Amino acid sequence: MNKDTKILIPNIYYFFKSIQPNKFHFNLLLLSGLLLVPLQKTRSEQMFLKCVGKYEINRGALIKPDWVTSYLTINLDGLISTIDDKGIIKEGRTLIRRNSYTITHRDNKKNVKNIYKINGKHGTYSVISPQRNRTLIGTCQKGRG
After folding, report:
1. Is 83 exposed, middle or buried (0-12, 13-18, 19+ CB in 10 A)?
2. 93-140 pLDDT per residue, tens
3. Rounded CA gap, 61 and 59, in Å?
4. CB of 122 within 8 A of CB of 137?
């Protein structure tokens, strides 16, 4: 073992001695340049939908309709999806089953505010608001994002 140590020390000395300073500086410059280049962020697959709907109201004839346009960004990995409703951006947990998507939007106290149900096959969607006892029914079409 002592013999191996004696051989190793001169080899390390000659190794560092053999590296030319010009090559070392070039390699250091190249390595630092690669670290400064930003890497491309990976994004999960998303689906963008534009949904238009009308509230189901049980109060007789309407004077003017309550049309609502929502822009949904559904994360196909089943994580957090976003809803842009009249400029207000909401986030909710996504549940994907076959060709239907369910987004559950909750408030700070973990109470369910809205449940968005989208049927991808038929292009329909509904928003159920359990706190206000209102239901929005409409259709969706794919958007560009």
Report:
1. buried
2. 999 998 899 999 999 999 999 999 999 888 898 888 888 888 888 898
3. 7
4. no
